Amino acid sequence: MAKITRKPVPRKAAVPKKKAKAAVTKPKPAKKSAPAKKSLKATRPWTPAEIHEVFSRFRKANPEPKGELEHVNPFTLLVAVVLSAQATDAGVNKATRALFEVADTPQKMLDLGEERLREYIKTIGLYRTKAKNVIALSAKVLSDFGGEVPRTRAEIESLPGAGRKTANVVLNMAFGEHTMAVDTHVFRVGNRTGLAPGKTPLDVELGLEKVIPPEFMLHAHHWLILHGRYTCLARKPRCEVCLINDLCRWPEKTV
């Protein structure tokens, strides 16, 4: 039988692979950054004459400003300020009107007791903790200070529930000291206007004490509190009716 010879099938020539194109990284468009807010520290500093003018205007508009926390003596003022932490003055007044009719001294407050005190102040935030502090500070005022509210910052700060702001309010309103109590309103006004920029309430307090003339210091913190509460509002400041809008350094003022 004849042997069949198969012809070899020619292989296809290998096609050289195309080199992959190097990936071209397109530069990402730069993100538009929000326009930087103008720093108050970069603005023109207040001059002593301008600061004198600011407080002269406040004094002319309201010669004898009063704190809005109702009280009948230094002790009830101390209690009202302690209760006002993270609460409104109006809310505190609503609760303390009846309270101070029955407990306007440290001894009467102790006699009232923590449980009954809670019933009077239960509409105020953190009332349980505040009731405990008020009873404790009443006991300390009796035991350490003969039943009288102390007259130094360190002594007032030693009382349960009382901090630096509490001490400054009591020293100013009860004893006529030239102190600067910095609450949220004063902190905002000090920073926003550029009168005393600061990262902490203490920074603002010391800054204001440094620049405000002594003749205005007795009422200065009341003027600033009222200005922040009714004019220089947190969200929508009423620049159009502001007494000092021509002097204010706030870059975003609307006049």
From TrEMBL:
InterPro entries from the UniProt entry: DNA_glycosylase, Endonuclease3_FeS-loop_motif, Endouclease-III_FeS-bd_BS, HhH-GPD_domain, HhH_base_excis_C, HhH_motif, Nth
Entry EC number(s): 4.2.99.18
Positions of the UniProt region annotated as Disordered: 1-43
HhH-GPD domain boundaries: 83-230
Binding residues for [4Fe-4S] cluster: C232, C239, C242, C248
Single GO biological process annotation from the record: base-excision repair, AP site formation
Role description: DNA repair enzyme that has both DNA N-glycosylase activity and AP-lyase activity. The DNA N-glycosylase activity releases various damaged pyrimidines from DNA by cleaving the N-glycosidic bond, leaving an AP (apurinic/apyrimidinic) site. The AP-lyase activity cleaves the phosphodiester bond 3' to the AP site by a beta-elimination, leaving a 3'-terminal unsaturated sugar and a product with a terminal 5'-phosphate.
NCBIfam families, per the entry: nth
Keyword Nuclease tagged: yes
Record family assignment: Belongs to the Nth/MutY family.
Cofactor-binding details, from the entry: Binds 1 [4Fe-4S] cluster.
Catalysed transformations (reactions): 2'-deoxyribonucleotide-(2'-deoxyribose 5'-phosphate)-2'-deoxyribonucleotide-DNA = a 3'-end 2'-deoxyribonucleotide-(2,3-dehydro-2,3-deoxyribose 5'-phosphate)-DNA + a 5'-end 5'-phospho-2'-deoxyribonucleoside-DNA + H(+)
Presence of keyword Iron: yes
GO MF annotation list: 4 iron, 4 sulfur cluster binding; class I DNA-(apurinic or apyrimidinic site) endonuclease activity; DNA binding; DNA N-glycosylase activity; metal ion binding
Keyword terms of this UniProt record: 4Fe-4S, DNA damage, DNA repair, DNA-binding, Endonuclease, Glycosidase, Hydrolase, Iron, Iron-sulfur, Lyase, Metal-binding, Nuclease
UniProt-recorded name of the protein: Endonuclease III
Signal peptide span: none
Biased composition (Basic residues): 1-21, 28-41
Known cofactor(s): [4Fe-4S] cluster
Pfam families: EndIII_4Fe-2S, HHH, HhH-GPD
